[in-house]
User: Fold this.
Amino acid sequence: MIIGGGIVGVSLAYHLARRGTTDVVLLERKQLTCGTTWHAAGLVGQLRATLNLTRLAKYTTELYAGLEAETGQATGFRQTGSLAVAASPGRLEELKRGASMARSFGLEVNILTPDEALKVWPLISLEDVVGAVYLPKDGRTNPIDTTQALARGARSRGVRIIENCRVTGINVEGGRVTGVRHEQGELRAPVVVNCGGMWARDIAGWVDATVPLHAAEHFYIVTEPMAGLSGNMPVLRDADACSYFKEDTGKLLVGWFEPRAKPWGMRGIPESFTFETLPEDLAHIEPLFAAAIRRVPALEKAGVQVFFNGPESFTPDDRYLLGPNPEVAGLYVAAGFNSIGIQSAGGAGKVLADWIVDGHAPMDLWDVDVRRVAPFQRNRRYLHDRTVETLGLLYAMHWPYRQAETARGVRRSALHDRLKAHGACFGEVLGYERPYWFAPPGVPPEYRYSYGRQNWLEYSAAEHRGVRERVGIFDQSSFAKFLVEGPDAAAVLNRICAAQVDVPPGRIVYTQWLNERGGIEADLTVTRESPERYLVVTACATQGRDFAWLRRQLPPQARVTAVDMSSAYAVLGVMGPASRALLQSLTDDDLSNAAFPFGASRLIDMAYARVRASRITYVGELGFELYMPTEFVQAVYDEIVRAGEAYGIVQAGYHALNSLRIEKAYRHWGHDLGEEDTPLEAGLGFAVSFGKPGGFIGREALLRQREAGLRRRLVNFRLEADEPQLYHNEPIWRDGRIVGRLTSGMYGHTIGRPLGMGYVDNGGEIVTPEWIADGRYELEVAATRIPAAASLQPFYDPRSARVRA
Ligand SMILES: Cc1cc2nc3c(=O)[nH]c(=O)nc-3n(C[C@H](O)[C@H](O)[C@H](O)COP(=O)(O)OP(=O)(O)OC[C@H]3O[C@@H](n4cnc5c(N)ncnc54)[C@H](O)[C@@H]3O)c2cc1C
Assistant:
C-alpha cells in the first residue's frame, strides 16, 4: 500500500510490479503529480556526492530513456547531456573528484577546458571559468508525462492506482502496520509506504515515526524565446552562481539554489494544496538573477515569461529518506528529495521495491537510510532553521568535513563548555556537538575548507602526536550505550553477536552484529558487567539503527530487557603510553598490565567518583575508556586534566581520532563496514566465533563464504607521496585496472602519508593475499593517478604491541 502519487510513489509501484508484486494499491489524495512533481524543472543529472547515489541516478536515466518504448506513453525524456562549469579551482577539483568517482563504474564524464566548454554552450561568458565537466548521457524529462508513463507501466502489471482518496490514518497493532484508513473506508495491508512528499513528516507523525523534512520555496524563471538556443543544448550548471539553465522550446528556464532559502509551510502543508504555486518574490531572486546574467549575458535582454515559485521538501542533511521506519514494523518511507526527486525517483523506487520484497536493501544505502535520523529531528523549529541552509547545499561546495551552520548546539555533552574553553572546534553528528579539533590560543576555532591541507590539520597533527607519544583525552560521551539485562541476556546476545560474548564478567568483546547474509549490521563492543548484565557501546551515528536492530532480535519470550542508556553515561577516552601512569595517580585500584590487561573492564575509584574503566582503544595505544554517570564527568575530567599536565596531556578531537585509527586500520561502520560487507571480507575474521554453542545470526552465510573463498577484501593503502589528501571514494587501480575505491581516507601523521582503506576485487575471482601483494597500485584523485602501497596489515604497529603494553 503506497500513500502518495508523486513521481516517487508511482515509481515504487512500477518497480514493485516489475518485481512481480502486483497486489499493490496506491492512494493519491487528489491527482497524480499534484504535489511537487508537476512543476519540477525536469533535470535528470547523474553525478551525485556519493558513489551509490550516483549509481541510482545513472539507473534513473537509463530507465527514463526506455520508458516510452516500454509503455507507449511519451515522457519528454531527452539525453542532451549536461555541462557543469567551475569558476574556482576548488570547484574544478570537486568536479574532477566526482568525475573520477563516477568513471570508476562506467559513467561517461569528460573534463573540458574553458574553450571546449564554450563550444558546448556558446552563450556562456568564460570570464572566470577555469574548467568544466560534461556528461553526455545526462538528460531532461517532463515530470508529469514521466510519472504517467510509470503509472501506465504499473497499471498494466496489475497495480491499482486510486486518485481522490486521501489517507487519514495508519493502523498499527502490536507495533506492526495492519493497513490504512482513508476517506472512503479502510484498507488492510502488511506494508505501508509513505511517499507523501512534503506531507510525509506529518503522515509519519500519525504513528510517532520520524521523517524529518520541511518544505522550502524553490524558484525558477522561464524567458521569452531567445536567440542562440537550440533544442540539443545540454543543461548548464553553474554551481558557483547557484544557477542552472535549461533550454525549453526556444526559451531558457533558469533556476536557483540560493545559500539562504525560504522555508515554507511552518504550520503544516494545507490539505487543499493541489497544482498550486507560491507567490513570486522578486527581491529574493534579484541577486540570483544577476549572477545568472553574469554567466549567460544574453539573459539581460531577454523578457521573462514566467516567474515560478513552488515548494519542495528538504531534510536536515540534504539526503533523502528511504527504507523501513524503525518505530513501526511494516512502515516504509521514500520522501524528502531535496529538489532532485525526479532524477532520484527511478533508482529510489527500484531499490525500495527490492528492499520491501527481499527484506533487505539491495546495496549499501546508509547515505539515505531513514534509520540514520534521530527522533528530535522532527522538531519543527530545528527543521525550519536548518532548511534555510539545506536548499543551497546542493550547489554549495561539498568540502571535506563541511559542517552545518544552522540549527547548531542541539545536543551538548556535559563537558561542552570546558572543551570550548580549551579551543574546541565542534563538528556535529545528529545534533551532537563533538570536539573535532582544538585551536591553540589566538587561533579562531573555525574551519577554512579546501581539498588540500585544511587550516586545522597541523593542530590535529599535534593532538595525534600527543596521543602517540604521551597521553590525550577524548570526550567520547556521544557514544550510544545500551544496557541488556536479564537471566537470558548472555544467551540472547550470543546469538546476535558474531563473537563469543558469554565471557567472564569484567571482559570487553569487540564484535559485529550480522544479518542472515553475513553482512555487518553493526560494529561495536559488548562488556559483560555481571552474569546477567551487559553494556553495549556503539557509535553516535548509529544509535537509533543499532538499538532498533537489538530490539527486533530479542525473542518475545526471552527474559531480557534492553534499555538505551546513552544519555545517562559520559565517556572519557584517556589514550597514550602515559595513560596508565596518569590514571594510576588518581586511583588506588591496580591498573598494571598484570592486574588490568587489555580487554578488561571494571569499576574503579577515579578522583571522587566510581567509574567503569575499560581497557580498550580505537587509536592503537595503551588506553582506557572511562564510563560514569553524566553528573560525575566534569569533576573527573578536571582532575585528569590537572594531573595530566605532568604527563604532557593533550586535548584531542575526532579528526585526530580518525587519523590514529586509520593508521592502525581500525574499521569504521558506515564507511569501511556496512550491511553488504562480511567480517571475512573486512578482515575481521578474528572476531568471529564459528564454534560457539548455539551459533549466531549469519554464521551459515559466513561458513559458505569461507568455503568458497573471498572475492573481495578490505586493504590498507598508503600514498607514495605527501599530497593530495585522501577523503574516500577515490578509485583504486591495480596494474592499470580499477579494482575498487577507498571507503576511508585521512592523513596519517605518524606514518607521514595520506592513508586509506578500501575493498578490492579481482573481477569475480578469488582475492588471495598473494594477489594483493603482487599488484602495482595507484589511487586516482581528481583524474590523476598516484602510486600507492597496499597492505592487509595496518601500517602502524601491526602486532599491537603498544595496545597490550
Ligand atoms: C521549482 C522546482 C524545481 C524542481 N526541479 C527538479 C529537477 O529539475 N530535477 C529533479 O530531479 N527534481 C526537481 N525538483 C524536485 C522534485 O519535483 C521533487 O523532489 C519530486 O517531485 C518529489 O516527488 P514526491 O513523489 O516525493 O512528492 P510529490 O510529488 O509531492 O508527491 C507526494 C504526493 O503525496 C500525496 N499525498 C500527500 N498526503 C497524502 C495523503 N494523506 N493521502 C494520499 N496522498 C497524499 C500528494 O497529493 C502528492 O501528490 C524540483 C522541485 C521544485 C519545487
The longest strand covers residues 737-748. The pocket of flavin-adenine dinucleotide is lined by residues 3-9, 27-30, 34-37, 39-43, 166-167, 195-199, 203, 218, 220, 310, 312, 335, 337, 339-343 (CB under 6 Å).
